[in-house]
Amino acid sequence: MDQKLNVLLVDDSRTVLAQLERIVSEIDDVAVVGLARNGAAAIREAGESKPDLILMDVVMPGLDGLSALRTIKSLHPDIEVAMVSSISGDARKAEEAFKLGACQVIGKPFDTEIIESLIETVRANLSGVANSEAGARGQGK
Amino acid sequence: MSVKFFGQFLIDQGELDASHIREALGLMEAENISLGGWAIRQGFMQQVDVAKVNAEQRRNDSQFGDLAVSMELLTSDQLVDVLQRQREKRLPIGEALVRLGHLAADRLGVLLDAYKTDQAQYDVGEVELPDGLASRRVTRYVIDLLPRFMLRVAKLQVKVGEVRPFTKAPEYAQVRVSVPIKDTRGLDVTLICDSAFAEALASAASGLTIADLDPEMVADGVGEFLNVLAGNAASAVAKEGYPVELGPPDYEAELCDGWVFELAVGEGQAALVLSTF
Q1: The model's pTM
Q2: Is the Cβ pair A107, B3 closer than 8 Å?
Q3: Candidates B12, B25, B231; nearest CB to A95
Q4: Average pLDDT over residues B232-260
Q5: Residue A141 has pLDDT above 50, yes or no
Q6: How many Å apart are CA A110 and CA A115, to the nearest integer?
Q7: In this predicted model, which residue has the larger pLDDT, B12 or B126?
Q8: Which residues face B165 on adjacent strands?
Q9: Which of A97, B28, B68, B149 has a C-alpha 20 to 30 A away from that of B215?
Q10: Nearest to B57, CA basis, from B48, B67, B49
C-alpha cells in the first residue's frame, strides 16, 4: 500500500484524543483525518473523511461507541474499527464489539506498542487486499 | 495494561485475529444455553414465563434471574441451580477456538496460564470498607486499583488513607468529577481535588505541559482517569460474573452523602468520594 493510512479518532475525552493523535501522528505514513467526540459525530465524520481505520471509545455521551460501530460497519463495511475502552475487559462488551465487526478491542490505559501493532496489522491487511485485487485484475486480462 | 477479555489477549499476543474470535463467538452462541433455557429444561419455568421475564427486561434493567425471582416465576434455590448448570456447561471461548481448529489444545493451556499471569496484577487484596460499601463488589476494586492506575496513568504516587462519612466538600475541592457505575444499585465514584493535583494528573495523562492545559482539559484529564479506574473495576467485577454498566464522566458532580477516602498525594490535595444511588 503506497498511500497513507487514514485514521479517525473518536473519544469524548480531549485527553485521550490528544494522546492518540500524538501516538498515531508519529507513525510513518499514517494521517489523522478527523477527530470526533461522540458516536453521531463519528458516523458523520466516517462518511466524510472515509478513513481506513477508526479508533473509537465505547462509553460516550449521546450515541455510544457500540451503536456507532453497528451503523458505521453497515454503511462502510471496508472501514476497520477498533474499540478503545476502559471496559474492554468486560467480555459482554468485547464480544458484542467483535460480533458487530470490530477488528480489535484495546483496553485503557493503552500501550503505545498496541496501537502501533494494530496500525501495522491493518496496513498489512489493506495491502493484502489491494495486492489480491490487482492480481485478480491481472488474471482477468 | 488493563483488565482484558481472553480473546483480546489472544489478538494482542498475535495468536489469531478478530475473524477467529467472531467464529468462536458464533459457536458459543449456538451451543450455550440461556438461563431461561436452563430453567425450562429443569422444569422450573414454562416458555410463556420466560417470555414474560424477557418482556419485563425491556422496561427493567435487571438481569434475567433476579427479575424471574422478583416476579415469583423462579425461586432463589432454582436460580442458584440453573446458574450453576449454566456455568458448568458453558463453552468457553478458548475451547471454542480449539474445537474450530484455531488453537491447539496444548497451546490453549499455555496461553491460559500466560493470561492468568498477565491479569494477576488486578487481583484485589483485603480492603477495609464501611458497612454500607462493603456489600458492593465493585467498591473494593475501585479502592484497591486506584493507586496502581494513578501510578500507571499519571506516574503519581498515591496512598488511600482513612475513610469517614462524607459531610461536605472541603474548601480545596475546586475540581469534582464523578463517574457512575450501575448494577442493581448505583455507585458514584467522585474524585475531588485542588487545581494543583488536577493539573498534575491531567498533564501526566495527556502528555501536555500544565501551561498548555485549559480548565476544561484539566477536568477532562481527571474524568479520563476516573473512567479508566471505574472501567477496569467494572471489568474485573464482570469477570466474576456480576456485570455492571459504566456511565460517562459528570463534570458538575453534586455531592450530598457517601464516604470519603482521603488520598495522600505528593502534589496538592485530593480525596475519593463513593456514594450509592
Answers
A1: 0.82
A2: yes
A3: B25
A4: 87
A5: no
A6: 8
A7: B12
A8: B259
A9: B149
A10: B67
